[in-house]
Design a protein that fits this description.
heterodimer; A: mainly alpha; Non-ribosomal Peptide Synthetase Peptidyl Carrier Protein, Chain A; B: 605 residues; alpha/beta; Rossmann fold; Aminopeptidase; 9-stranded mixed sheet; 5-stranded parallel sheet; 19 strands
């Protein structure tokens, strides 16, 4: 998994482990309310900004990972 | 470093929402010893601040247990005693309102100038009625967040010219909230407007999250807001410090007095760094005007310090601003102990400020209850440092608070007088003390509640009744008395409170508290005389009193014994005392005049 992604997800969603296959369906604490905090935490951590259309769609580790790649232009944003 | 400190140090190194989540997870195992604080969170917008708030509360010594009401359910929750809020039994309720989800958003007024300004008064009245309805059900304190101006509007250049710009609207709203705060008991405004203005207002609300999910406040701003809310929660629990004890060299002024001499120290506005020290001195005076006493503990030559305050008339701080002095070469913990003893306040009411880390460490070790704080390394940071210390957090300021420094000045004079050789009775007579009993009523009720809540030393039962409880007693026939005192030195304000319960043939002193400022003047005897008279007037044959010992109320341990009451019961809690009112009552000292009650009884509401 992308470096840092698992850590942010574990911290914000209050879970002990996360895999590529996880999504809102498999993680109970990942509800629509907590989703917004997760989005902000990811943006803060990776130094990116998602489009509003994307935000509701980022409901699995895979879609999030892909979206981070899309928004991370150059390597500086992935420094952490 | 404790486990908690380590968690906060790690968080502060790289604060982010993710790290707050990590800190909260770690705190769950480490915060078991902290006092639980139950906070209900009501909001008219999507608001998931719980995690960040738990961390900021732990920083203030509180283990947060929170309840979040459903989106925009604050009205129902406040009105319905069976709603989640009522069942949760909170220690405080935090209400966060976002402007764009109020009725105001429907009119164009929130986006700019309008010829038809919205009815602010009516809206705030409605909110006030809601809070009052809740107040009738529960005495729980309410923390009410005020409104933050939107980051953009349609006013353009007209903002300054137009009468009803959106900024004006928000300001008017917030002023009206202030009035609500002062008219309803236990409502305290959380000043989010100020917080946002200082911390990049433009980012207060994330436009995407607002339009997507009605998130009023960007989660990135949660740490700031949570810190403010946590400070308020802590202030509800812990009284503010009463005295700030400062070092002199490189704290109050720049330089070492012993080396530079009175003329050489830097403390005036002419140039840096003197001007930074002068600014700090003004900040200390601002604390003093809030009722926080100033004292000095310095390792210095006393004669030289005396000379500074005599000769340096260009310095902001004057001798008369400082209530107590400890200037010598002895250890500072001893100095602090003496200051606390002379001012008659607890060590936990002292904040100690020093630039020397060794002194701070020594005080921390020797006197852990003193709040010892080390000054920042550069004087230009002093004012901000002082402003951010939560030790001085007061939720409300009473007239008595503001007069405290002046009253201590009076007390000091009295002590000097009483030590000046004359005998005690002559001293008492010279004071010409007048005691004025009055029923607790609307105008003095806040002070009455404050004394009951805060008095530690002369407090016979330490029952911390709040306002609704007191009103219940009164409804059931009890009498609640406030006592003002004045003497040749001036008016001391309300200095004592007593609550009398009556049964068929006896009168029970449920509570009797007296400010430590007037201990040692036989006022308690005059008050007991008055209470016994009230009991007689109500046809009681017997007076009953209790002494319930606490860590702090030793000064009144022998109160009933001294007044010839008989001990009728002794148990784990304390002692019970009784006295027949026939044939003789406690006599009031002849040097105290008890004024006839002049105020009419009125409804405390």
């Amino acid at each position: 998994m992308r470096p840092g992604l698992a850590e942010v997800m574990k911290n914000v969603l209050d879970i002990d482990s996360v895999t590529e296959d996880d999504s809102m369906k498999t993680i109970e604490s990942w509800d629509s309310l907590r989703h917004l905090n997760l989005i902000m935490a990811l943006e803060e951590h990776f130094g990116i900004s998602f489009d509003p259309e994307e935000i509701p769609e980022l409901n699995s580790v895979r879609t999030i990972s892909a979206a981070i790649s899309k928004h991370s232009t150059g390597s500086k944003t992935e420094a952490r | 470093m404790s486990a908690l400190d380590e968690i906060f140090a790690e968080l502060d190194e790289k604060p982010s929402l993710s790290q707050y989540g990590a800190a909260e997870r770690k705190l769950r195992n480490a915060s078991g010893d902290l006092a639980a604080f139950r906070l209900a969170i009501l909001a008219n917008h999507t608001f998931d601040i719980g995690t960040v708030l738990a961390v900021e509360c732990a920083r203030r010594g509180l283990r947060l247990i929170s309840y979040s009401a459903g989106y925009d359910q604050y009205r129902q929750e406040l009105l319905d005693p069976n709603a989640g809020l009522g069942r949760f039994q909170p220690d405080a309720v935090f209400i966060s309102l976002h402007l764009e989800n109020t009725e105001f958003a429907a009119s164009p007024s929130t986006c700019g100038f309008t010829q038809d300004p919205p009815a602010i008064g009516a809206w705030v009245e409605k909110l006030g009625a809601l809070l009052l309805a809740y107040r009738k059900m529960s005495p729980t304190p309410i923390l009410l967040q005020n409104f933050v101006p939107p980051a953009s509007d349609m006013d353009g250049l007209l903002s300054a010219a137009g009468r009803s710009s959106v900024f004006d609207l928000v300001m008017e709203l917030n002023l009206a909230l202030r009035q609500t705060e002062s008219s309803i008991p236990e409502v305290y405004v959380i000043d989010a407007a100020r917080l946002a203005a200082r911390n990049n207002l433009a980012e207060w609300s994330d436009r995407r999250l607002w339009f997507l999910a009605k998130v009023g406040i960007s989660p990135k701003k949660f740490p700031l807001l949570a810190s403010e809310v946590a400070r308020s929660c802590a202030a509800l629990r812990r009284p503010a410090a009463k005295c700030v004890v400062v070092d002199l060299d490189n704290t109050i002024w720049g330089g070492i007095l012993g080396d530079a001499g009175p003329e050489g120290i830097q403390c005036t506005d002419e140039s840096y760094p003197g001007n930074a020290y002068a600014a700090f001195q003004r900040a200390l005076l601002a604390l003093r005007s809030r009722g926080i006493l100033l004292a000095v503990a310095s390792k210095n030559d006393a004669a030289l310090v005396e000379e500074v305050f005599r000769k340096r008339t260009d310095m902001v701080l004057r001798k008369e601003h400082i209530t107590d002095w400890e200037v010598h070469w002895e250890p500072k913990p001893d100095s602090l102990k003496r200051i606390a003893a002379r001012l008659n306040i607890g060590l936990d009411s002292l904040v100690f400020l020093d630039d020397n880390p060794a002194e701070v460490a020594l005080v921390k070790m020797a006197l852990p209850s003193v709040r010892a704080r080390q000054m920042p390394s550069r004087p230009e940071d002093f004012v901000e440092f002082l402003g951010k210390l939560a030790d001085f957090d007061q939720l409300r300021l009473s007239a008595e608070d503001m007069r405290r420094p002046e009253l201590y000045e009076l007390r000091k004079k009295q002590t000097e007088m009483s030590q000046s050789g004359t005998d005690l009775e002559t001293f008492y007579r010279s004071l010409k003390t007048v005691l004025a009993p009055q029923r607790a009523s609307g105008s003095n009720f806040d002070r009455v509640v404050q004394l009951i809540q805060k008095t530690n030393q002369f407090n016979l039962t330490t029952r911390r009744h709040d306002k609704p409880e007191l009103m219940k007693h009164i409804e059931q026939g009890s009498e609640l008395w406030a006592f003002r005192a004045r003497d040749v030195h001036g008016d001391h304000g309300i200095i004592a409170v007593a609550l009398l319960d009556f049964s068929a043939d006896s009168c029970r002193i449920d509570s009797f508290v007296m400010s430590c400022r007037v201990i040692g003047r036989t006022l308690e005897t005059a008050i007991l005389h008055f209470l016994e008279e009230r009991a007689r007037a109500r046809k009681s044959a017997r007076m009953i009193g209790e002494y319930l010992p606490t860590a702090k109320n030793e000064p009144c341990r022998d109160f009933y014994q001294r007044h010839n009451y008989a001990c009728t019961e002794k148990n784990d809690q304390g002692t019970q005392w009784s006295k027949r009112l026939e044939p003789s009552m406690t006599e009031s000292p002849e040097w105290i005049e008890i004024e006839q009650e002049v105020t009419t009884v009125c409804d405390p509401a």
